[in-house]
Amino acid sequence: MTHPDSVLKFSLGLNGLSFEIGNQHIQIEQGLGFVGSKSIGHGVIDELAIEKMIYFIEEIIESQPLRNLNVSGVAVTSDPAMTYLSQLFFSAKKQIGRIELEHGFNDFIERLSYSTNQVAPDQFYICTYFVFIREMMHHLRVKEIQII
């Protein structure tokens, strides 16, 4: 049984990121919009844009107090973007494990132009969200994301 104080609650927005675990609350002013603006050139999401996203996301995760959070392996969110990702890549599941997420992410990358065509240009943050979730799983040792 996972202790509720070690569950990571997160919200990834265009203008800021929020992380909470127990009584620790971390607010980051650089959101998905910042990552996207630094990564996506000429409105195209390609392999280079994904690489740049990974770089900027790693910078955010590594340079913030996020590294000090003692995550139990479970993260929860009520972000509409996570629900949308789940519908696109995970059969609308409410719980997505690390291996399943990695498979979905690999499908996303392998069919990048198809995947990005599924998303309207004003919704490209969904792609940035997906990259952030994947990096969060790696760097913060998240084993499962639950949509609440």
Description:
With about 150 residues, this protein is of the alpha/beta class. It has a single domain, classed as Nucleotidyltransferase, domain 5 (2-Layer Sandwich). Helix content is about 45%, strand content about 20%. It has helices spanning about 30-40, 45-65, 80-90, 100-110, 110-115, 125-140; strands at about 10, 15-20, 25-30, 75, 95, 145. Strands 3-2-1-4-6-5 form a six-stranded mixed beta sheet. Helix 1 (about 30-40) packs across helix 6 (about 125-140), helix 2 (about 45-65) crosses helix 6 and helix 4 packs across helix 6 (about 125-140). The longest helix is centred in the middle third of the chain and has 17 residues, at about 45-65.
Topology at a glance:
Blueprint: E1 8-12, E2 17-21, E3 24-28, H1 32-39, H2 47-63, E4 74-77, H3 80-89, E5 95-97, H4 98-110, H5 112-117, H6 125-139, E6 144-147
Parallel strand pairs: 1-4, 4-6
Antiparallel strand pairs: 1-2, 2-3, 5-6
Helix pairs in contact: 1-2, 1-6, 2-6, 4-6
Indicate the percent of residues in helices: 40-55%
Beta-strand segment tally: 6
Q: How many separate domains make up the residues?
A: 1
Name of the top-level CATH class: Alpha Beta
Q: Report the portion of residues in β strands.
A: 15-25%
Going by CATH, the architecture would be 2-Layer Sandwich
Q: What fold name stands as the CATH topology? A: Nucleotidyltransferase, domain 5
Structure class = alpha/beta
Kindly state the mean pLDDT as a whole number? 91
- Can you tell me the CATH superfamily? Exopolyphosphatase. Domain 2
SSE order, as H and E? EEEHHEHEHHHE
Question: How large is the radius of gyration?
Answer: 14 Å
How large is the count of helical segments?
Answer: 6
Question: Which spans of ≥5 residues are poorly predicted at pLDDT below 50?
Answer: none
Q: Whole-Å distance between the termini?
A: 18 Å
What summary fits the major beta sheet? Answer: 6 strands, mixed
**In one word, what is the shape?**
globular
Strand order of the largest sheet: 3-2-1-4-6-5
